[in-house]
Design a protein that fits this description.
2 copies of one chain form a homodimer. Chain A is built from 14 helices and 20 strands. By secondary structure, chain A is an alpha+beta fold. Chain A folds into 2 domains: 308 residues, Aminopeptidase, CATH 3.40.630.10; 129 residues, Alpha-Beta Plaits, CATH 3.30.70. The first copy, chain A, has a 6-stranded mixed β-sheet with strand order 1-4-8-5-9-19, sandwiched between helices. Chain A has a 4-stranded antiparallel β-sheet with strand order 13-15-11-16. Chain A has a 3-stranded antiparallel β-sheet with strand order 6-7-20. In chain A, strand 2 and strand 3 form a beta hairpin. In chain A, helix 1 packs antiparallel against helix 14 and helix 7 packs across helix 11. Chains A, B: Its cofactor is Mn(2+). Chains A, B: Belongs to the peptidase M20A family. Chains A, B: One of its GO terms (molecular function) is carboxypeptidase activity. Chains A, B: InterPro entries: ArgE/DapE_CS, CNDP/DUG1, Cyt/Met_Dipeptidase, Peptidase_M20, Peptidase_M20_dimer.
Chain lengths: 489, 489
């Protein structure tokens, strides 16, 4: 527990603090929204190499913004990405920036990304995905919540201190990448390379690439990892007419469907041997913690529009969302996927599926388990087609200690801005870089989300609410002040 | 058997016939190829409603061509197509044309279509699919073989008689449609409506919408039908992030894969109850006939690029290609189908699969068998997602008597042009209109292919060889002459 004096001083500070900073943020709201609009307008879809010029432009815009604020900015070349056809394409550079270098202050490093998931109007968006559209205070646009607004909120935080001519209470560094949605290709090596330079004076790493669980603000202390697989079945040398050849050819699509159907049972049980056995058991303490979290199953169901979930009680549901693995089949490349009908036997089909990783799973082991299993299942079919299983992403899970001072500071900042205790939650998704930061730098990490629980990340109609964007900026301002009080490691 | 005199007269005729007509055809080869190039340039993909203007233009071009030749041409309005969103779009009009109306002559009606399957360069075409490209005498282009060149070969046939100022030996009618690749939507009703008008004086119907089995010319006496299904599984109201929601949601894609995997076994056995029982047994006579057909399994395998087929002997292979049903899973709409990775749980996925129909299957019964089966398999999964199975095409198989005079005339024409006996073959694909013509008009039908065995219908790099196009035109010229000798029904 903290001494009472700390809270009294903090409370006194808050009165002044709130007045200056929060008023400043409120009065600059429209400017913040306009910047977000400019950023969302850049289709920085890192999964589509044809969009790579937009990704490069997004990194340049980010660097220019930080440069204009007087930061010490670098655009770090992290090499090239190898494409399936053997060609290469340049990776978006990583932006690093530094504001302040006072050795007597704490140094935080804010991580974020400015690349986005794919989005097309015809996927079912109500508005143009790259034209930020304000509907009742919700700002709709691809990447608004994941992760452009949170990155901007951190930038606005530094701007606010600067505008009010008040020294930053901590040194602030930024590391902003453009490949997060596609596995943060190249970033790990860059972090390793700069371990003793850029990261040498960093005390804490802050990540705001996640969201709240409910309307209650939250701090996130764990994420699942992700092993993403391609399973390719190749048969005839080209697509065939299903009338002319159907019945004579062993069809790759039938083989692929057959092996995909052995991954997971209808009740959600992973059928790949060894996966479930590796999962850390659920402790009583954990069970109790889940039990206390504010989470309304009915509103969760209604939000996603389903009548029934995989589990009907809160603990099972949260546990399977955060601390158990799962298999998702995302789709199949190479088969007929358009509207209407086509009488084709696809010659080569590639299933995309992924397995979320949790402690104590190891991606290297999972890769072997999945590959061995699928090859053995496929062998039983006695098909002449060729199966190739590859793991293209292998991201580890991450778990923090919620009693660390960094989290205590987070709780205090949330209390200050929102006047509630935050929920302590985990994230079902993956922020693989958290694990890398931890492993390489050995520094403590906190995840401090400002995105809403209903922001629709990775799906149609992604949005960031004005409320979360603006109050989130205030939270970051308050948090830097809290971190300044922490004892240097 | 025909009287010897017939063959003697025919032989005498051939000497003159060959000289005039065949020389004319040979000397107009470049003109024919240019017309085919103009036709292939129109992207008349009937499956894509956005391409509908091209389909309309293709029908207009066809009508104009026939009109310019002095035919009595009509563009018949066959109504509208209903789209999934409830809107409607005009169907391509059907072109009918008539050359000659001498009641003392036989009247043949040539059926063809000028719409095509989808094609994109990036599907793996070596040349632009809508730019007819001559490589070593092979004319590559979407729709070249299926069915634009055969339709043009029939048009060139009439042109040749006209150019040489020789009366057509039979009256020739044309019925050319623009929706064949999408189930000949609207054509059945049009044929029924014109049964006692356009079709009243038709004696025989000729279809050249198929191909040879080997390098040996062939006559086709049977086709499989096709029941094309959509199986839609709908879950959440929108796509979800697989990290954030994976493990809590019963995923539509998992359900869909699960039910698709129950359609057919790895060894090609259809698992839907009742389907196999409906198939007419293979007779000894049929077995013997298949045994005699020229068919080289090794070259078939090497052509499609597989090391092993579903069956290793000729009779099983031909039988399963022509006279047994099969299931093909064409693809899935709504799932992630692009290159790269996307961590999405698709909210609504629609599988496209089809079952080839053979005697004595009945599409109405098959519809019920498939629907009942899939609903029962799905029910066992106890999924809250919604399954909707619809049959969007229900085309019956067709079978002709190879001893009919129409086929004898065909054999004679093949002998005349190619100096070989044709193979008598069936077609694994579907030309549903054959069954309709038979059922509605009661007239005899012959299928007289000119396309090569390796034309790549419905797949990448479709082509029509110059040889088949030009010699095929000669075959049609010879055939009209043979038909003129048939006794009127």
């Amino acid at each position: 527990m903290r001494p009472l004096l700390y809270y009294n001083l903090s409370f006194t500070f808050c009165l002044l603090f709130c007045y200056f900073y929060f008023q400043y943020v409120d009065s600059h709201q429209e400017e913040y929204v306009q910047t977000l609009r400019d950023w969302v307008a850049v289709e920085s879809d890192s999964s589509d190499v044809l969009r790579r010029p937009d990704c490069h432009r997004m990194m340049d815009m980010t660097a220019e913004k930080l440069q204009a604020m007087g930061g010490k900015v670098e655009l770090v070349d992290i090499g090239v990405q190898e494409l399936p056809d053997g060609k290469t394409v340049a990776l978006p550079k990583v932006v690093t920036a530094q504001f302040g270098s006072d050795p007597n202050k704490q140094t935080v490093c804010v991580y974020g990304h400015v690349d986005v998931q794919p989005a097309k109007l015809e996927d079912g968006w109500a508005t143009e995905p790259y034209n930020l559209t304000d509907i009742n205070g919700h700002l709709y646009g691809r990447g608004a919540s994941d992760n452009k607004a949170p990155v901007l909120a951190w930038i606005h935080t530094v701007e606010a201190y600067q505008a009010l001519s008040i020294d930053l209470p901590v040194n602030v560094k930024f590391i902003i990448e453009g490949m997060e949605e596609t596995g943060s290709n190249g970033l790990d090596a860059m972090i390793v390379a700069q371990k003793d330079t850029f990261f040498s004076d960093v005390d804490y790493i802050i990540i705001s690439d996640c969201g709240w669980l409910s309307r209650r603000p939250a701090l996130t202390y764990g994420t699942r990892g992700n092993c993403y697989f391609f399973a390719e079945v190749e048969g005839p040398k080209q697509d065939l007419h299903s009338g002319v050849y159907g019945g004579t050819v062993i069809e790759p699509m039938t083989d692929l469907i057959g092996i995909l159907d052995t991954l997971i049972s209808p009740s959600g049980k992973i059928l790949i041997p060894g996966i479930r056995e590796a999962v850390a058991p659920l402790s009583d303490e954990e069970w109790k913690m889940y039990q206390d979290i504010e989470f309304d199953i009915e509103s969760f169901k209604s939000k996603i529009g389903v009548s029934q979930l995989m589990y009907s009680n809160k603990v099972d549901l949260l546990a399977h969302r955060w601390r158990y693995p799962t298999v998702t089949i995302h789709g199949i490349e190479g088969a007929f996927s358009g509207p209407g009908s086509k009488t084709v036997i696809p010659a080569k089909v590639i299933a995309k599926f992924s397995i979320r990783q949790v402690p104590n799973m190891d991606p290297a082991v999972v890769k072997k388990q999945v590959t061995d299993y699928l090859y053995s299942v496929f062998a039983k079919r006695k098909s002449p087609n060729k199966l190739k299983v590859t793991m293209i992403i292998g991201a580890k899970p991450w778990l923090a200690d919620t009693k660390h001072p960094l989290y205590e500071a987070g709780k205090a900042a949330v209390k200050r801005v929102f006047d509630v205790e935050p929920d302590l939650i985990r994230e079902g998704g993956t922020i693989p870089i958290a694990k890398t930061f931890e492993d390489v730098t050995g520094k403590s990490i906190i995840m401090m989300p400002i995105g809403g629980f209903d922001d629709g990340l990775h799906s149609q109609n992604e949005k960031m609410s004005r409320y979360n964007y603006i109050e989130g900026t205030k939270l970051f301002i308050a948090y830097l002040h809290e971190v300044a009080h922490l004892k240097k490691d």
